């Protein structure tokens, strides 16, 4: 007995469409969750004193990780709509355009969230610059005060043994001053390096957001160029068809006039 075979191609396309639909909904929920997270921590991140620098770094790290994850998911969603992918086969043009529109809307939403958080990073960057300037001014005041009035050195002088002469006391005092200046310089250098690293991290995040947005724009321009090329090719095909039809029509008209003229000449000869 021969076993009957059933065509289940439509079930396959339905399963593919369901997976694509779920992927789009999941990514939309992820983007909404990222927007809610940024909105929840935006005030604490921007206002100075509400959270520590470590907590700000943690918020930046989480937002950056979410941004990279959402970007990768949207890229996979757009790649699944390629002409050679199973998710793009069997779709009518309206559904295909709808899914491309969904991917574009998700990309724009993600870019808007990134731009909003970049503004917060800019505020933090300005705060760090102001804090660094205040610390530098404070160190300058402390340095001037230590030069004008040094009670710690006076206390050390009083605690020195009586058998030390004035030259030894002066040498110890100079060594202490040099040590204090060295420690202040090291502290200033460490603070400057820390601030520079934070500024580089902030600029890196902002640069990544701009690169992502430019990549989206380049992809849109490429798709528009491909669509324009396809339209030009279709126009050339239609133009060739019109030229062929026009040539055939001219041939028909030529033979029609030739036959009509011959008929008129024959009728004129016949009746004459």
UniProtKB/TrEMBL annotation:
The superkingdom of the source organism is Eukaryota
**Entry keyword set:** Coiled coil, Membrane, Protein transport, Transmembrane, Transmembrane helix, Transport
SUPFAM superfamilies xrefs:
t-snare proteins
Q: How does it sit in the membrane?
A: Single-pass type IV membrane protein
- What is an annotated GO biological process for this record, any one? protein transport
Q: Where in the cell does this protein reside?
A: Membrane
Segments traversing the membrane: 252-271
Cite the InterPro entries for this sequence.
SNARE (IPR010989)
Q: Which GO terms describe its cellular component?
A: endoplasmic reticulum; SNARE complex
PANTHER family, sorted: SYNTAXIN-18
Family membership, please give it.
Belongs to the syntaxin family.
The protein depicted here goes by the name: t-SNARE coiled-coil homology domain-containing protein
This chain's source organism reads Coccomyxa subellipsoidea (strain C-169)
